[in-house]
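Researcher: Here's a chain I'd like modeled. Treat it as a single chain, no partners, no ligands.
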Amino acid sequence: MTTVLSWLGVLVCGGLGSVLRFTVDRTISRRADGAFPFGTLAVNLSGASLLGFLAGLALSPHLALLAGTAFVGSYTTFSTWMLETHRLAEERQLVPAAASIVASVVLGLAAAFAGQTIAGLL
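Model: Modeled as a single isolated chain. Structure tokens:
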């Protein structure tokens, strides 16, 4: 029974995460000018921060599965980030492509560390 409940929880949390990702990405992308994927960056940075926070809380394995893997995993988007960055490079927009890579990696690590630090203070 626990397995069925776990799968249902993953299904619901994963669905909520993906809907929230779509909403945040679209909201930011509509307001941003230029080719840089600000919506995807915002989603991935907020997701890194949240995942760091959850890791800092040392959740039970079942709760970590639901919150970290299902929700945050479906909220963040590595594949969209790579596709958008690849398209920028194909269009010879090398500065925005490089900025996407550097900003995502450097700021993503900082966001995860900040989230974990905040959780540790609680």
